[in-house]
């Protein structure tokens, strides 16, 4: 960043923050928002309220009152942020990335703090956990929503909650329910999330996937190797045989009581249907250690919902070429005919939210909050997202890169996807795709992509 760009940054920031003026009823909190954002953009070693106030020549309690006592609509700030992202950064392969983050804290007064798993430290420790929704579109990404995860022991102790300013209507919610609420808010604010992705912990409750299915939301998410399903739908019994005695049963139901679903790990290990499919190599992305290459295959899978098999979903199995023992399993509800390349692109996009966490924690002081009030914590997370969006847009614009897609049509014209960073590595060999046909590895992206089979193609794939 040169001197001219630095001079341009201040008026750009003033224009950017002006869109939030209607969220404040008085001038003072409008000015405090700017002070807070400037402090997060500064080079202060610790970007909590007191150092930011000292650097701005304000009293130490000024910003504390801005977050905890001043009247302003922080939910409206979040809504305007999402509407801006929706209007300025649309993309035909936009991805909502769901993840959580832990913030190590001492003491027991910070809302939601307890000994729980802290990914930042890699162990169980005293921390606060927050759930987030990130938006990834082409080469652009930012956080668009954040919520506190309230542990059950906190929720059960309402007196402790009231001491921390947690309203009675705010109770313990599983992280997957918080994620669904965030997704629904983003869509209500005009964000067109073509895909959603998440880590292996969220599908542990199958209701999370079924809720996304019911919303018509396409997803590709990682699942544990112990996740279960059927590669072939089990037979169902639809009505009772005439003349049969005994109590009437529930219909439809599984015809055989022993038709239990099996784990995806055993599917890969023992199922002829999956083992016979050839692996296809894909260049995921470039890293400091060189290109990251994984090989993958995809088959239909049927999940169990209320004791019955669902419609066909898709099981994607990916294996690290450099370390074949490293295997990832993904579940997807993509439309039939979606290229496998697209599924891998979405499934491997979780690094975007990790990058957002890294930027907000190291550059903007996301974890530097020192508050004992629930509203202060929520407002801190929202203002940090406001600051991060400004940085993301400046970085994106000054790099001169486009957020719009290059032309790469989707399978059978169902939908378009941008030029993706996932593709078959160039070479001279031919690799068979699951349909049995071969394609040349030097072929362009459209000719080198395996498509998720259509319903009528399931037997051919098998």
Element layout with pairings:
Blueprint: H1 3-18, H2 27-41, H3 49-55, H4 62-68, H5 74-88, E1 95-104, E2 114-118, E3 123-137, E4 140-148, H6 152-156, H7 158-163, H8 175-188, E5 195-197, H9 206-214, E6 220-223, E7 228-229, E8 236-237, E9 253-254, E10 262-263, H10 264-270, H11 272-275, E11 280-287, E12 290-305, E13 308-320, E14 327-332, H12 340-347, H13 351-362, H14 374-399, E15 430-432, E16 438-440, H15 458-461
Parallel strand pairs: 1-5
Antiparallel strand pairs: 1-3, 2-3, 3-4, 6-14, 7-10, 8-9, 11-12, 12-13, 13-14, 15-16
Helix pairs in contact: 2-3, 2-14, 4-14, 5-14
Notable characteristics:
single chain, 462 residues, 5-stranded mixed sheet, 5-stranded antiparallel sheet, 15 helices, 16 strands, 34% helix, disordered C terminus
Explain what you see.
It contains 15 helices and 16 strands. 34% of the residues lie in helices and 22% in strands. Strand 12 (290-305) and strand 13 (308-320) form a beta hairpin. Helix 4 crosses helix 14 (374-399) and helix 5 (74-88) packs parallel to helix 14. Residues 401-449 and 454-462 have low confidence and may be disordered. The chain is globular. Strands 1, 2, 3, 4 and 5 form a 5-stranded mixed β-sheet that branches. It has helices at 3-18, 27-41, 49-55, 62-68, 74-88, 152-156, 158-163, 175-188, 206-214, 264-270, 272-275, 340-347, 351-362, 374-399, 458-461; strands at 95-104, 114-118, 123-137, 140-148, 195-197, 220-223, 228-229, 236-237, 253-254, 262-263, 280-287, 290-305, 308-320, 327-332, 430-432, 438-440. The protein is an alpha+beta fold and 462 residues long. It has 2 domains: 3-199 and 352-399, no CATH class; 220-239 and 249-345 and 424-461, no CATH class.
């Amino acid at each position: 960043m040169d001197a001219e760009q630095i001079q341009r940054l201040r008026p750009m920031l003033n224009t950017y923050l002006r869109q939030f003026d209607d969220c404040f009823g008085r001038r003072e909190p409008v000015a405090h928002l700017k002070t807070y954002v400037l402090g997060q953009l500064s080079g202060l070693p610790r970007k909590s309220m007191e150092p930011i106030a000292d650097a701005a020549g304000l009293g130490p309690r000024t910003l504390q009152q801005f977050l905890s006592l001043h009247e302003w609509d922080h939910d409206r700030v979040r809504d305007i942020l999402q509407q801006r992202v929706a209007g300025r950064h649309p993309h035909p392969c936009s991805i909502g990335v769901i993840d959580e983050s832990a913030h190590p804290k001492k003491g027991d007064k910070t809302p939601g703090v307890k000994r729980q798993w802290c990914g930042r430290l890699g162990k169980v420790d005293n921390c606060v956990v927050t759930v987030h929704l990130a938006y990834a579109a082409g080469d652009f990404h930012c956080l668009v929503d954040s919520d506190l995860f309230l542990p059950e022991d906190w929720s059960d102790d309402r007196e402790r909650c009231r001491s921390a300013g947690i309203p009675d209507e705010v109770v313990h919610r599983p992280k997957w329910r918080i994620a669904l609420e965030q997704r629904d808010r983003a869509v209500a604010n005009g964000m067109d999330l073509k895909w959603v992705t998440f880590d292996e912990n969220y599908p542990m409750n199958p209701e999370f996937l079924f809720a996304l299915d019911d919303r018509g939301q396409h997803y590709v998410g990682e699942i544990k190797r112990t996740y279960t399903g059927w590669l072939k739908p089990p037979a169902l019994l639809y009505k009772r045989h005439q003349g049969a005695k005994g109590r009437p049963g529930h219909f439809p139901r599984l015809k055989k009581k022993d038709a239990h679903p099996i784990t995806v790990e055993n599917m890969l290990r023992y199922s002829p249907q999956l083992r016979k499919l050839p692996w296809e190599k894909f260049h995921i992305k470039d890293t400091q250690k060189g290109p990251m290459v994984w090989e993958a295959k995809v088959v239909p899978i049927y999940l169990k919902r209320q004791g019955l098999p669902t419609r066909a979903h898709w099981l994607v199995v990916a294996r690290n070429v450099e370390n074949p023992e490293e295997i990832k399993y993904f579940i997807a509800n993509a439309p039939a005919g979606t290229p496998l390349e697209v599924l891998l692109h979405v499934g491997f996009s979780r690094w975007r939210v990790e990058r957002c966490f890294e930027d907000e924690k190291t550059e903007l002081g996301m974890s530097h909050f020192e508050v004992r009030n629930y509203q202060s914590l929520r407002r801190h997370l929202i203002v940090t997202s406001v600051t991060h969006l400004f940085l993301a847009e400046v970085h994106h614009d000054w790099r001169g890169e486009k957020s719009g897609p290059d032309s790469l049509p989707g399978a059978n014209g169902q939908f378009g996807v941008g030029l993706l960073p996932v593709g078959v590595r160039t070479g001279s060999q031919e690799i068979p795709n699951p349909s049995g046909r071969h394609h040349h590895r030097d072929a362009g992206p459209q000719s080198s992509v395996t498509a998720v089979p259509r319903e009528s193609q399931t037997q051919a794939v098998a």
